[in-house]
Design brief:
The chain has 160 residues and is an alpha/beta fold. Helix content is 17%, strand content 28%. The strands form four sheets. A six-stranded mixed sheet has the order 3-6-11-14-16-17. Strands 2-5-10-13 form a four-stranded parallel sheet, with helices on one face. Strands 4-7-12-15 form a four-stranded parallel sheet. The relative contact order is 0.15.
């Protein structure tokens, strides 16, 4: 089970009331930083922008490829270890807005992790050190250290 904290909403769906859960100006700033960072070709500069402006935790020698999208509303809930690669066009979510509630959860990605292109990582998930996630995977639960995960629904295989 993913580790998320649930917040019930009354009346209209939770996305309709978005700016009661997160500041418009925070979302605006985060969107601008993420859009600029998506096209920055220098990893050090990109990581510096994410650490400085979004308060994400990113380890040394970690590379977020072209068009990776960290959570726009709660990027500070994302932690990525050392020497990790996040593939092209991957989305890392720390929130879910549903009809009657919204959920927030930390995403922890370990050291020496390889995440393929076009993945979606849901809130409340931990990907252990040395894990490999294949392209186009929906990461909806934890991936143990050293494991290989892939597909939709995601299947996990221990590597030997």
């Amino acid at each position: 089970m993913r580790r998320t904290k649930r917040y019930e909403v009354k009346g209209a769906n939770s996305l309709w009331n978005i700016y009661q859960t997160v500041s418009f100006w925070k979302t605006f700033k985060n969107t601008a930083v993420i859009e600029i960072s998506r096209f920055v070709p220098f990893m050090r500069m990109k990581n510096w922008m994410y650490r400085t402006f979004l308060r994400m935790k990113i380890g040394e020698q970690t590379a977020l490829a072209y068009k990776v999208v960290p959570d726009i509303m709660f990027p500070e809930y994302i932690s990525i270890g050392r020497n990790t690669i996040i593939g092209y066009n991957t989305t890392i979510l720390a929130h879910e807005y549903l009809i009657h509630e919204y959920r927030l959860g930390e995403v922890v990605i370990g050291d020496n992790v390889m995440i393929g292109a076009n993945c979606t990582i849901l809130p409340g998930v931990t990907i252990g050190d040395g894990a490999v996630v294949s392209a186009a995977t929906l990461v909806h639960r934890d991936v143990p250290p050293g494991a290989f995960a892939g597909g939709n629904p995601m299947q996990i295989k221990e590597r030997t």
